[in-house]
Amino acid sequence: MAIRISLTDQIAEFTRAGRDIGWCYVATGKEGHATRDGTYKITEKIEDKYSNAYGWFEDEFGNVTDGDAKASQRVPAGMIYVPAPMPYWMRITSYGIGMHGGLIPEPGKPASHGCIRMPKEFVPLLFDAVVVGTPVVITHAPGKRGPRGLETRPASSDLPANRTSMGAGGVEVVTYRDGVPVLYR
């Protein structure tokens, strides 16, 4: 497996043995928290991780009063600090940047504090398919596939039933579009 992330298009593209196997939208670092381009490798995998830097404040009823709080901030009276969940964490830097499941509020636009958020339905499949050492390239170059070269998505009735993971059930390759499986070979 290899992963290429286009900061310009806000997509991740996936290859296995040099063959394209799919892509999905991502949300990388917003202004002031830019995700750095470069060549990385996955150095850690944790299925159930929470941020030690970012989260939100909630009141006693669970209402979010500050959705962009830092762990270092003083917690206002009557509030609690809730660390941001980062499910299926795949670390790529020594300074706390990784790929994980998360909200992608506007596909094609940055939204994170520097991490690479991936679709919540897709990230468990990727987590299971990669290993520590999987290469990750982050670039400003446009994507090779993704939105600019979108193929028409087949109707859901055209998809085989019960095929839910890369390589499962005798399937050689599953192609994903925005984290949804669309082609089985």
Written description of the protein model:
- Mean pLDDT is 85; it is low at 150-172.
- The strands form 2 sheets. The protein has a 7-stranded mixed beta sheet, with no helix packed on it. Strands 6-5-7-8-9 form a 5-stranded mixed beta sheet.
- Strand 2 and strand 3 (19-25) form a beta hairpin.
- It contains 1 helix and 12 strands.
- It is elongated, with a radius of gyration of 17 Å.
- It has 185 residues and is mainly β.
- It has a single domain, classed as L,D-transpeptidase catalytic domain-like.
Please report the total strand number as a whole number.
12
User: How many angstroms separate the termini?
Assistant: 17 Å
Residue fraction in strands: 35-45%
- Main sheet record: 7 strands, mixed
What would the CATH topology be? L,D-transpeptidase catalytic domain-like
Structural class comes to mainly beta
CATH class: Mainly Beta
| Principal-axis shape | elongated
Low-confidence stretches: 150-172
- Counting DSSP H or I runs of 4 or more residues, the number of helices is 1
**Overall number of structural domains:** 1
Helix content: under 10%
Mean pLDDT: 85
Architecture, according to CATH?
Answer: Beta Barrel
Q: CATH-wise, what's the superfamily?
A: L,D-transpeptidase catalytic domain-like
What are the key terms here?
1 helix; 5-stranded mixed sheet; single chain; L,D-transpeptidase catalytic domain-like; 7-stranded mixed sheet; 185 residues; mainly beta; 4% helix
Give me the secondary-structure topology.
Blueprint: E1 2-6, E2 11-16, E3 19-25, E4 38-41, E5 44-58, E6 64-70, E7 80-91, E8 98-101, E9 116-118, H1 123-129, E10 135-139, E11 174-177, E12 180-184
Parallel strand pairs: 1-10, 3-11, 8-9
Antiparallel strand pairs: 1-2, 2-3, 4-10, 5-6, 5-7, 7-8, 11-12
